[in-house]
Design a protein that fits this description.
single chain; about 350 residues; alpha/beta; Rossmann fold; Dihydrodipicolinate Reductase, domain 2; 6-stranded parallel beta sheet; globular
């Protein structure tokens, strides 16, 4: 078969750090076109990748005959228009999270992709961490029994540093909720299934970051009830946990407690998890088995490079494999829409100061 031509819309750091190396692991794919509204960013991406077909207009990119699939890594407010244009042109789509500004947009994207028969994927990158993959396997295999509690905690220290378009409501929709907690909402869905209802609160501690106005939250907290077993959920994420650092080395903690045991995941330890069973005195650290160290079919050497970063490449492997095998991507736009429904409920809860049922 001819190589799958991939076009990228939005050529910032996420693309160069995650998607370009990921596509390099896929012999079936070839990066053929780039788009960004910033000419300087576009030029740098072209120099780094060697791709000559570049444009400032995403409509031109999705119309190109050599583009079979599109990766969207832009500010959130244009995810839906770009994705819908790509789908209408018959292109497969991988979109960064959150995939839309609200649930209605996200559902429209999922429905359109389903109707068009194209592959669709949400970039919930942390699903590909070996430790999270193994944790999900154990939970689904019944290692904790019936769940009582889910909790996640994402702590970063950005202080008053600017976070670009992510601090602007009209461009991002939400702040810490969409930026970081969306991933942890996906953890919750992956491990325990749908959230039935929730109550949320948020804070903005900095109205100005590096001299730029910030009108979005720095901290978000959600208390939730799951459909399964009425299990409880506690989710927290912040950019102002002083001294906790930022990026992959800051705390990303997830724990599930059940009738038979508990499992703990930490991003700082991507190749191990902590477990305990009923009757044991405390947590035991166990390594992630070899078969969970990389995505099935990935050409990546799981023992090479920094494991806090290299797992990210496997999401592009999954995207391309799903296209080749003509099967649904994991995670799909449906997963992105499910997370967006929780985010919408959180926004409504904060506004009305009450518990809200999730759509």
């Amino acid at each position: 078969m001819k190589p799958i031509g991939v076009g990228i819309v939005g050529c910032g750091g996420i693309v160069l750090q995650n998607h370009v190396p990921g596509l390099a692991l896929c012999p079936e794919a070839r990066l053929v076109a780039l788009c960004d509204t910033d000419a300087g960013v576009l030029a740098r991406a072209g120099q780094q990748t060697g791709v000559g077909a570049m444009t400032l207009d995403y409509r031109e990119l999705v119309a190109r005959s050599e583009v079979d699939a599109v990766i969207i890594a832009t500010p959130n407010f244009v995810h839906a228009p770009i994705a819908l244009a790509a789908i209408a042109a018959g292109k497969h789509v991988l979109c960064e999270k959150p995939i839309a500004m609200n649930y209605a947009e996200a559902k429209a994207m999922a429905d359109a992709a389903q109707k068009a028969g194209v592959r669709h994927m949400t970039a919930f990158t942390y699903r590909f961490v070996p430790a999270m993959r193994y944790m999900a396997h154990l939970v689904k295999a019944g290692a904790v029994g019936e769940p009582y509690h889910f909790r996640s905690c994402r702590l970063q220290d950005w202080g008053t540093r600017a976070v670009g378009w992510r601090q602007v409501a009209k461009l991002a929709g939400t702040g810490e909720l969409g930026d970081m907690l969306s991933h942890r909402i996906d953890y919750a869905h992956l491990l325990l299934g749908p959230i039935r209802r929730l109550v949320a609160d948020d804070r903005r501690f900095h109205d100005v970051r590096d001299g730029q106005v910030s009108d979005l939250e720095d901290w978000i907290g959600i208390m939730a009830e799951f459909a399964r077993n009425r299990a409880s959920g506690m989710l927290e994420s912040t950019k102002v946990a002083t001294g906790r650092g930022s990026g992959a080395r800051s705390q990303d903690y997830c724990e599930v407690n059940g009738t038979e045991g508990s499992i703990v995941f930490q991003l700082e330890r991507p190749l191990e998890i902590q477990v305990t069973k009923q009757g044991e005195a405390g947590l035991r650290t166990i390594p992630v088995p070899e078969e969970f160290l990389k995505w099935p079919g990935s050409a990546r050497d799981p023992h090479a490079g920094d494991p806090a970063f290299t797992f990210r490449y496997d999401q592009d492997v999954e995207f391309i494999q799903a296209i080749v095998e003509q099967r649904p991507c994991v995670p799909s736009f449906h997963d992105g829409a499910q997370a967006q429904a929780v985010m919408d409920a959180a926004v409504l809860s904060i506004r009305d100061r009450r518990w809200v049922d999730v759509a």
